[in-house]
Amino acid sequence: MPTISQWRLRAAFAERLSRMYGREVPAYTTLVDVSREVNEDVLRARGAAAERLGSIGRVTAERHGAIRVGTPRELRQVARIFGALGMRPVGFYDLREAAASAVPVVSTAFRPVDGEELARNPFRVFTSLLTPDDPRFFDAGLRSRLEAFLAARALFPPELLELADRAAAERELPEEEAERFLRLAVAAFELSAEPVDRAWYETLERVSAVAADIGGVRSTHINHLTPRVLDIDELYRRMTERGIEMIDTVQGPPAWRGPDVLLRQTSFRALAEPRAMRTPDGDVVTGALRVRFGEVEARGIALTRRGRALYDELLARVDERAAQNPTEARGDIARAVWERHMPGSERDLAAAGLAYFTYRPRPDRPRDGSRPPTGPGELLRQGWVRAEPIVYEDFLPRSAAGIFQSNLGGEGTRDNDRQGTAYDAAWLSDAIGHEVLDPFDLYERQQRRSLDEVARALDPTGPLR
């Protein structure tokens, strides 16, 4: 019997999830259509330069999803499902600390980590875990009720988890089992028609709309799906022209004349979706919940730890100047700060050790018998190598929190006089049962491999640094 490999399972799952979400949230289909139009226009206008950070085929097919779960047990089960698709947990994001409003979750992203697998299909799922033991959000009584509610539900059928374990172990599934796995997996993330207990949902909603979305229902669902676009500012303009209400801004670095770095994101606002609601007297009535939205992203170059420190410093400068000049557009402030302090070319980023690249010997490199320099910056400047940017595959906690916050109906409640519960990547690794990988290590490894290959090709006296 024919078998389906992990990456094909991943691609099929992403495509089916997209179709399902488009049926549930028609504005998402509009977002995908406009993204495709923008990408085609950018490709016509810029030619090969438009594909500097990924082929148009990859960019057009690319998606990331977002889901939310309530307990470490549910998170471990999610990890089994995504493990079947060749996706591993990468990065630790504490959204509690990244937002001024109540967003009581910590998160990771499940994604492929191998370069070949990313090129085949880079599907990612940003996965958030509720933190009911953080006393800033939940008092002892509400925490007890919430944990009991979460413990009593089952998000994923045993058959799905068994098929997932088989796919992870064998790195493929027979065609018939693959089809069954895909149907069960997509169904697990569909919006449930089961009535929502209105009183319980509203109790949690007073703390946080995110908490209510996770712990106020007996199932999970895809919270948003995100296509990738080559010009996010043009996408924002076209969506607005079509009458789609967008959030107030594009999160992340500003639009500027220099290289695109890290990640820029925006979304249309969460829509009022009809939901069956059970009232305290047992009646079922039609209500509406605003929890799901359509996000879009533009990906740039991965920054090194030093580059990321510079990015964070520039954000702080923008915050300070925006507070001092409340009438000036934040985008204009950010653009001016970036153009003054951020290197304005890929070569300058590489020479300063601020961004990650893969390096390749140039065919027209010097052939006069001279020895090459040992640093990437000088190798580039003297024409020995070319540098190809490594795409940022991960997320920014402040941007993610900003998207969440922009789509919330209220600020919720948060008692900052209490000490928050500590979480970190090690805690999350234990909760998942798999190491949460450090994205910087993955990018560094990719760059290091390319420099080792350059060293062998150029035969210097020692490894390049």
Number of self-contained structural domains? 1
- Strand order in the sheet with the most strands: 3-4-5-2-8
Mean pLDDT: 90
- CATH-level-4 superfamily name: Uncharacterised protein PF07063, DUF1338
Which structural class fits the helix and strand makeup?
alpha+beta
Q: Write down how many β-strands occur, each being a DSSP E stretch of 2 or more residues.
A: 14
- Which strand-content bin applies to the residues? 15-25%
State the CATH architecture. Roll
Main sheet, how many strands, which sense, barrel?
A: 5 strands, mixed
Per DSSP, the total helix count is: 19
Stretches where pLDDT is under 50 for at least 5 consecutive residues are: none
Which CATH top level class fits? Answer: Alpha Beta
Residues in helix, %: 40-55%
Instruction: Please compute the radius of gyration using only Cα atoms.
Output: 23 Å
CATH topology: 2,3-Dihydroxybiphenyl 1,2-Dioxygenase, domain 1
